[in-house]
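Entry type: protein chain
Record version: 2
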Amino acid sequence: MLLPKRPTPGENNRFMTATVSPNNLTFTPLNANLRLKDILKTLPKECFQKDMRKAWTAVLTSILMVSLGYASIAIAPWFLLPIAWFFTGTALTGFFVIAHDCGHRSFAKRRWVNDLVGHLFMLPLIYPFHSWRILHNQHHNHTNKMDVDNAWQPFRPGLYASLPTPIRGAYQAMRGRLWWLASVVHWAIMHFDPSRVGANDRSKVRLSVAVVVGFAVIFFPLLIATLGIGGFIKFWLMPWLGYHFWMSTFTLVHHTAPDIDFQEPEQWHAAKAQLAGTVHCDYPMWVERLCHHINVHIPHHLSTAIPSYNLRMAHESLRENWGTYLYECRFSWSLMKAITDQCHLYHPEECYQSFTAYERQK
């Protein structure tokens, strides 16, 4: 499905968003004085309440599903291995979502529990917990703010033109049909470098990096010594790439559409960016269950204090009170094609400029 055309950034002073009905496209003005807290006041208080039974049920469910995935890899004939890998990678994404709640302190009331569970569930993914947590919070504080947001920010044409040819080629691939590898690049570049965070947080980042490096130094040689390089590829690398497929896809779709703009810092409006600049996308239910409904993304951007198991409740409330401002779609190849064909470079008037359009105007 191609996404509906919304107002251009030139109309940002009116803060308009679109809603689609079967027969027409209408636009609803978003009050420029609207604040995030005005929206949050309309959500039921139950959305923000932690439920330890639900939280630990999610933990047990993910452990069971990941275990089932690895068992299926162990017994599957070669021609069924891609299915087993993809299922296991999807279940491992559930591990990340649990750590994601921990990073936002919405898993447990005690900080040390959040930090411990977050580190443990990111270990198999070789993801430094504190590094991800701190950088991810920057994304939440500056969603779709040009030159500040650190998630799927498009390159400005001038920057793109100045890059060496190999880097331009890599960027084209990550913005095109190889989008599903983009989070691997993001993981490698962003999360092992303490200099990317403030001086006060660098010791925490070093701790998390040391934890995952120590795990890798012990686990990978044992795995290779026991099962060989083939076993390393079969039991770790392929499921890990399946996990990164969903990491790339979720984060791309959450914040990218041909008519959702990144805004210049002086034009940026928090309520508009978080309510109308993020996307709710429906996936097959088995994916949503294994990934603990992380696809229900708009309420999460309004408040990171909402636990993952309460996101659907919050979204239903948003539909009732703010439905004309919500951007919703369904996962499909046509959706991914629209994004990867069009959403390439920053354009101040048309949201995005495709590589083809950029080359034509040169």
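Comment: The first strand starts at residue 16 and ends at 20.
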